[in-house]
Amino acid sequence: MRYKASYGPSELLDPSTNAWVPLTADLKSSLEADGTWNGRFSQPPPELDLDPGDAGPGFAIDSRMPGLMSEEELDRFGLGAVKVGARNFQTAADNLQGFDNTDGVLYKLIRETVAAVGPEVAVEMVLRLG
What we know:
The chain is of the alpha+beta class. The chain is 28% helix and 15% strand.
């Protein structure tokens, strides 16, 4: 990602904390000397009690993947208004049986999709099932 240094201000993702850090002159010269992340950041990666083999709806949110909407943003977003389509009908998510079960697959699928696409796209999209 050397091209990022040509644009400013630039940030790089710290893989150990999933936090964005400024691409300073010191960090740039350090990366040019040794292209690995070894010793660049002070904290070890966070321990997550997740098994990718058990991945299902909600896994990306639970893993705190960078770039997804936060839990707070998702709580403020009206998930029930997301348009869902299947076969020859379309309706709001909160009209679907089972959507009110926050531990259910349908709710988690819609929540994770909204987290990934963001609120601007989510209000316009139709999530097609089947």
